[in-house]
Amino acid sequence: MKKTAIFFLALILLNWNTNTIQAQLAKTSIRFDAVPAVSPGMSSATVEEFNANSKAGKSFARKYENATHAKWTQLRDGSSLVHFYIDGIQTKIFYNRKGNETGMMRYYTEHELPADLRQQVKSVYYDFDIFQVTEVTVGNKTVYLVKIKDKSCTKTVRVANGEMDVVEEIENL
């Protein structure tokens, strides 16, 4: 029950985060990969120290050696979050206090969406354009939130376990 609650909480946070990102993108023409490597107030040394001295940092460095623009955040509960890019895809990974990966969120476009999932969405929403995909993985479960739009509306379609449903629909202005 607790894992299910955490999974759905992650989905709610993801949906909020996706909407925030979409709003930011609508206001700027900056691509995801144009984000600076380090946020204001955080030096490169701080990022390097975190990587070298924490269990999460060591685990991250081993598993994601091709990552770029890594930015670490220490959360209040002692867990960690790292934002980075790998192969041009914005990724966030959550680590618990022991340095174990607990969840991952990836943001990308239609071109990086697995072909079978793209076909599943396009078979129903063939007149819609896919403009953003958010992939959420918690444990061994992965959910895709696919943002699609046509002339009249924008929808968020959730794809999980081979099933699809609309979780958000907004009329375009």
Structure description:
By secondary structure, the protein is α+β, with helices and mostly antiparallel strands. The chain has one domain (2-171): Nuclear Transport Factor 2, Chain: A, CATH 3.10.450.360. The protein is built from four helices and eight strands; from the N terminus they run αααββββαββββ. α2 packs across α3 (55-63). The longest helix is centred in the first third of the chain and has 26 residues, at 2-27. The protein is elongated, with a radius of gyration of 17 Å.
Number of separate structural domains: 1
Question: Could you say what the CATH architecture is?
Answer: Roll
Q: What about the largest sheet?
A: 8 strands, antiparallel
**Strands of the largest sheet, in order across it?**
1-2-3-4-5-6-7-8
Radius of gyration: 17 Å
Label the overall shape: elongated
Mean pLDDT: 80
Oligomer: single chain
Order of helices and strands: HHHEEEEHEEEE
Task: State the total count of DSSP E strands.
Answer: 8
* Helix proportion: 25-40%
The proportion of residues in beta strands is 35-45%
Query: Which fold name fills CATH's third level, the topology?
Result: Nuclear Transport Factor 2, Chain: A
Spans where pLDDT lies below 50 across 5 or more residues: 23-46
SSE layout and pairing:
Layout: H1 2-27, H2 44-53, H3 55-63, E1 68-74, E2 80-86, E3 89-95, E4 101-108, H4 115-124, E5 129-138, E6 141-149, E7 153-160, E8 163-171
Antiparallel strand pairs: 1-2, 2-3, 3-4, 4-5, 5-6, 6-7, 7-8
Helix pairs in contact: 2-3
